[in-house]
Every structure is written in structure tokens, then in C-alpha cells.
Amino acid sequence: MKKTKEKIKIRFIRDIFRGDTDEKLYSKGEIIEVGKEEAKIYVDEEKDCEYVKENNDYDIPKQLEECRFCRIRKGTKKPFEQNWTNLLYAYEEIKEYFPKENYGVLTGINGLAVLDDDSKDKQLIELYEQNFPDTFRVREHYYFYLIDWNGEKIIFYDDEGNHIGELQGLGQQVVGAGSIHPSGEIYEVKKDLPIVKIKYDDFMNVFSKYVKSTSENDNVKIKQVELTEEDKNIISDIKKKWKEGDRQNLTLSLAGYLRKEKRIGVKRALNIIKQIC
Question: CB neighbours of 224 closer than 8 A, spacing ≥ 6?
């Protein structure tokens, strides 16, 4: 029986066009399977591609040896065990389940912080890179230890009050390197470096402008938004049933309703509540 030639997965790191035409042959990010020799040409000689690591090619990074972990089903992002925040799997223990399962790295424990930037222009990552040393990175997650930090999660907002990211802390986790994203992609290590240590005060001196005060909910600048006819009707209907002393209940219930059911933005929702209160 003739032996089947081994195929290797490669990923294109740029768009490839056919000859001198505008016809695209392969797109950036596209993955194909080719033989070993062909793969070498694409990757080593033409440098158009990179090898695609399979899930089984990964070990849990040594940088995480002192961390604590949780179990996550393969291809998902959420822990599946009850009380997962208190199970605290050690490095050698979580290795027993990987790569058959994904795994999560618990944040906030022993000062481990992970910066998660959700902004479109990655302004939090840019700010970090301008002020602090390179550190261990998985996808868009930057790992570092914060000295003298109480472990509480920090939420970042822009000048208009829009959520742009978080510093993951106690009670949270990030999916670990080598795990499978719901899209099928692997959580790849982008910077295979030691996890650096940073003083909490130094970090806050740099990032404080994006942190909303925990004691003053109106600390973030919110630009005034012109009321639409729909907004005016909502305000009119609520004021008919408004009772003094309902401010807190109104803020919690109305904000959730406007955001989820009406698909109203943060600024519009806050403006409506302000008009009523």
C-alpha cells in the first residue's frame, strides 16, 4: 500500500497575487496544507507564510509555573466547574488536562495582572509599550506582576465614558496559551518573554486618566447628547410613574433596559437618566 505523503499546515502572512494580475491567489491569514518541501519554499525561501502550530504542539508556558488555573472545555472561553475560582489548580495539575481541554490562568493571585485592550486603536497596549518593559504576551493579553496591588479588577474608559478594556484581577481568568479559541484559532504566544514586575503606583500613574473613580460615578466626562423624539417619549412615560427616592432603582433597571432592549448607547442612556433624576 502506497504511503500517503505528510501534509503541513501553513498560514499566509500577506496577500499573494497570481503573476502580474490583480487576481488574488491567497489571502493574508488563509491556511492551506502542502507537502514538506513545498512548505519550506513558502516559509523559508519566499517568506510568504508561517507554519501553523497544532494544539498538540504546545506545552503550558514555563512562565506560568507559579500561577493558578481553571479547567475550560476545548474551543470555549468559560470555566465549566462550579466554584472554579477556589479550586486553584497548580501548574503540574492543570497539565494533566491539556491539550484535551483548554485552560484558564487565574488573575489577581500573587499579583498577576493581565491587560486586556478592547479599544479599536489599541491605545492601552500602546500606552503600556511606551512606558513599561516588554513582557509575556498571548494574543492581545499582556501579563505582568503588580507590586502592592490589592488584586481588584480595573476597568478603563475613554473620555466619553466608553469601556475600552480591563486589567483582569481576582475572580477572573484569561484563556491560556495553546488553547483553542471558539473561532478555531490557537491562543498563540506573541512574546515569549519573562513576566515582568511593575509597581502598582507606577502603573496607575500612567493609566489613571483611563480609570473611573470608584467613589465618584460622575468622574468620567460625558458629552451632552441631543435628545431624540424617542428619548423624549421614554422620559415622559417614566416621569408619569416617577416616585421620589427611586433614583437608585431607576438607574440600575433603566440603564440595563436601554442598553440591551433599546440598543441605546452609553451617552444616550446616561443623558435620559440625567433628565429624569
Answer: 271
Task: Give the integer Cα–Cα distance in Å for 71 and 88.
Answer: 10
Sort strands 141-147 and 196-199 into parallel, antiparallel or unpaired: parallel
**For residue 274, pLDDT beyond 80:** no
Q: Which of these, 96, 94, 121, lies nearest to 175 by C-alpha position? A: 94
Q: Is-contact 136 194, C-beta < 8 A?
A: yes
* Angle 73-77-80 from CA coordinates, rounded to 5°: 45
Q: Which domains does the chain have, with CATH numbers?
A: 7-52 (no CATH), 57-210 (3.30.2250), 229-276 (no CATH)
Identify whether the C-beta of residue 31 lies closer than 8 Å to the C-beta of residue 9: yes
- Our CA angle for 128, 133, 137, nearest 5°, is 70
Tens-digit pLDDT profile for residues 197-212: 999 999 999 999 999 7
Least confident range of 40-54, 117-131, 146-160, 193-207: 40-54
Query: Running DSSP on this structure, what letter comes out for residue 21?
Result: S
Whether the link from the prior residue into 182 is cis, omega within 30° of 0, is no
Confidence of residue 89 (pLDDT cuts 50, 70, 90): very high
What is the total residue count of the chain? 277
Answer whether 114's CB lies under 8 Å from 167's CB.
yes
Higher pLDDT, 260 or 94: 94
The overall pTM is greater than 0.70: no
How many CB atoms are located within 10 Å of the residue 134 CB? 12
